[in-house]
Amino acid sequence: MRPFELTAPATVEAALSAPGTFLAGGTTLVDLMKLNVLTPHHVVDINDLPLRGIDTRDGLRIGALERMSDVAGHPGVYPVISRALRLSASQQLRNMASIGGNLLQRTRCTYFRDVAMPCNKRQPGSGCSAIAGANRMHAVLGTSENCVATHPSDLAVALIALDAELRLAGADGSRTVRLADFYRLPGDTPEVENVLRPGELITEIVVPQLDWAERSTYVKVRDRQSYEFALCSAAVALDIQDAQVVDARVAVGGVATVPWRLPAVEAALRGAPATPESFEAAASVAAEGAKPLSHNGFKLSLLPRTIVRALLELTEGSR
């Protein structure tokens, strides 16, 4: 780790005027600084900022500095969010990591984290080592010839499914951005991962009220039971009346370069009976447009199976 200066402003205004890299829980930033992947000269500790609180009236509002474990255990938080958080990292990390930081965490691609290897995210124009390398954990959706790294956040998948928004603060004032519009596909600029402007800060996450999202879940398939990133995951919410799907929300992770909403699967579920056969038919379109690599073609079949598993988990006992 290289030397750096540390400041700890007490107000949002002071933080926005302080040049440097923001530090909250530090569970991503400190790791990358140790590896010399990130080498900021100035780190701005934002933990004293008034960006906490969880409000479940009229939807859900979460301060960006709330810790993952506190949000997961808060009454009134939708099950899909709580489950996604509980399946993320270890308990110790969940006690440290902030909600805003979770949404901004960097990819776990081993080539990105190895400064001896070419990586377009870390060094634009150097190449993507994963395309011809070890790519079992990498994306099959939303990729480009410049990057195939998956997005690591479980929480982001759940929030994308629920149409969450982010409140952002910057030198030019505040603005609101849908989380679905926040992340950027790699395209020709994989180093630009989101629409945050220089010096801008996430202050709050807002989830619209959705009463039927009480019937929701998050399924995560991984190589080991704990402290592992997803090979494939599915965030699902269902509105079922008289054994028929009235509405549905489906998003997936572990298979795409950004948290991936599946409107075609949602459309296929609407109006269909809540049966295994209907679920399998709807999930069969989930991998449309996928581009598998040499080691991750199994994700094309794992993806629909993961979605069906989540749907069945929500409907067992109601059929």
Kindly describe this structure.
This protein is α+β, with helices and mostly antiparallel strands. It folds into three domains: about 1-50, Uridine Diphospho-n-acetylenolpyruvylglucosamine Reductase, domain 2, CATH 3.30.43; about 50-205, Uridine Diphospho-n-acetylenolpyruvylglucosamine Reductase, domain 3 (2-Layer Sandwich), CATH 3.30.465.10; about 215-315, 2-Layer Sandwich (Enolase-like, domain 1), CATH 3.30.390. About 25% of the residues lie in helices and about 20% in strands. It is built from eleven helices and twelve strands. The chain has helices at about 10-15, 30-35, 70, 80-85, 90-95, 100-105, 155-160, 180, 265-270, 275-285, 300-315, and strands at about 5, 20-25, 40-45, 55, 60-65, 165-170, 175-180, 200-205, 215-220, 230-240, 245-255, 260. It has a five-stranded antiparallel beta sheet. Strands 9-10-11-12 form a four-stranded antiparallel beta sheet. Helix 9 (about 265-270) runs antiparallel to helix 10. The longest helix has 17 residues, at about 300-315.
